[in-house]
Structures are given as C-alpha cells and as structure tokens.
Amino acid sequence: MNRLVSRAIEEFLRSTYGEELVQELDGTPEAEAGVTDPARIDVSGLSRAGCRLSKPLSEMLEDMGGWMTRIEPIRRLLRFSGRDFKDFLLRLDELPGRANLVLPTLPVPRLQVRTSERGVQVMIIDPDPKSAWQFLLVGLIRGMADDYGALCLIAIDEVSIRIDIWDEQFAEGRLFSLEGASVMLGTT
Fold this sequence. Notes:
The chain contains nine helices and six strands, in the order H-H-H-H-H-H-H-H-E-E-H-E-E-E-E. With 188 residues, the protein is of the alpha+beta class. The protein has two domains: 54 residues, no CATH class; 101 residues, H-NOX domain. Strands 1-2-4-3 form a four-stranded antiparallel beta sheet. A hairpin with a 5-residue loop joins strand 1 and strand 2. It is globular, with a radius of gyration of 17 Å.
C-alpha cells in the first residue's frame, strides 16, 4: 500500500510540477533511506516537494486532492456518490468503506456528515494528529464542487470541514455519462 501511495504522490508531482522536480526529489537522502513508517511515507514526498517549492504541506495535500478529481476513473467513482453536489456531500461518509473495498489496508478515517440548521454541511473526521486526510479531503471536495458546478465556501478546523453551499448551479457542471446516457449536472 505504501508503494501505491508513493506512486500517486509521484504522479501528482510529475503532472503538476514536472519531471525535473521528481528527479530532484529522487536523489534526496530521505528518498534513498527507504523509510518504513506508514504515517511518514504517506506525506514524505509531498513534504519534500513543499520545501523545494516553498509551499506548506497542507497546501500540497489540498492540491493533490483536487488533482485526484481530474483523473477520470476516480472522478467517475466519486460521481456515483450523488446526482448533485449536496447529495455527493451527504454520501461522503460512505467513502472509507468504498476505499477499503479497493484498498483494504488504506487507513481512511471514519467520516460523519451532518447538516446544520442553516443548511451548512459539516464533515467530522476522526481526529488523528498525524493524519493528512483532512487537507486531502478539502481538495477533493473543492474539485468535486467544480465538477458539479457548485459555488461553496470550504473552511477547516481541527476535526471538521465546513462546506457552505451558496449556489449549487453556479456554473455548468462537467458532463457525466452513465451507461452511454450523458447527464448534465443539476438536471434530473
């Protein structure tokens, strides 16, 4: 599993920042040490790249989450979660189970999605001080909001992500095809 995560990080860095950065990071002492701590491996490549690019790790993780939504097979799997953005958010608590069907050893934290009295979606994440999931999920939510054409404000604190949807049909969403039938986002 660590190899798969490392490969995903490498592909993100390559497609976003270029082959030169990946080659430069491959020669660092940390990369050559063969670190085996799963909590460290998950973000070590992003951390080193962030240092080189003068970007905080949280921003690198958020960017990687957004990048993942542009990979068509991942995007398609995420789009099966809901016909509109709000429906997608309400079903995000199913994400850990779905991820573990594909990668049983992937340590995805438990998620709880709640709707406040003002209609704001709040995602509560099992707290883990070493977890990178919160920032990765923010990027993923941001990318899917764009995919659905929704305008929202996303804010984070220690254990939750708050999504305030201002307009679910702010922009035209990307086409999504299910069994040969094209469906525009926001239509039934």
